[in-house]
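Contributing new records

If you add data, match the layout below exactly. Sequence lines come first and carry their own label; structure lines follow with theirs. Keep one chain per record. Anything else will be rejected by the validation script.
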Amino acid sequence: MVEFDAGPPRAVATHLAALPTYAPHRDLFWYDWGPVFYRGRLDRSARLLCIASDPGPTERIACRTLVGDAGQRVQGFLAKLGLTRSYVLVNAFAYALLPSRAQRATPLLAEPQHLAWRNTLLRKVTGPSLQAVVAFGAQARAAVRLWDDAPDVPVLEVPPPSSRDATRLVTEWAAAVERLRGVVTPDDDGDATGPTYGPAFTEADYARIPSRDLPFGVPPWLGDDQVGRAARPRRNNTVERPGTDLLHTLVWHAPDAQP
């Protein structure tokens, strides 16, 4: 039987639909594409909560967060912890940030409506099974520090998966994996005994997004950009924003030689 994500439980869906408006700040985001909220388990069974900054263009196509190149790096991180399903991934911002305006957007995280909504979401998707939290990047760090009733579990702050400082990325992610292996219980079908990271990020450090995290009916290659990363010229993501219309157009490329 094919596994797929059937969507959030009713109570979580009701809360997601009550997202406070981003309209007064629309100049800071790819606003017209709307929000993207999560990936992973929303039933409070997650042992690890990961918070990143914001969704990207591939995430908009999938309607799930952290599924593009950055998400496949995060999935590799989870795999090194032996986690195949017991995680939940969200973002500090539900809308995609315009990178050059990220610093201007950060104060929005502390605005009362947005703060209350986000902290309620974090409470709704985590429970007594939670063993640790990972914050990927500056906006995620800010969001975690604003979580006033966060559970008493370790919080690790690491560079975002798209960091341009490759050395810092692999060094800090390796240290985080080593620490989390002593904290987070692997899934029964996971393996937390393999290598962490070498001196540079390689294809072996990626992992495909499992079908259980994606909606029914998406192409089987969505969430696995290995073909594009091996191509010349390299294509890290199947979805991109063309320079001719950055705000309103997405281009989705199917990889060649599909079976």
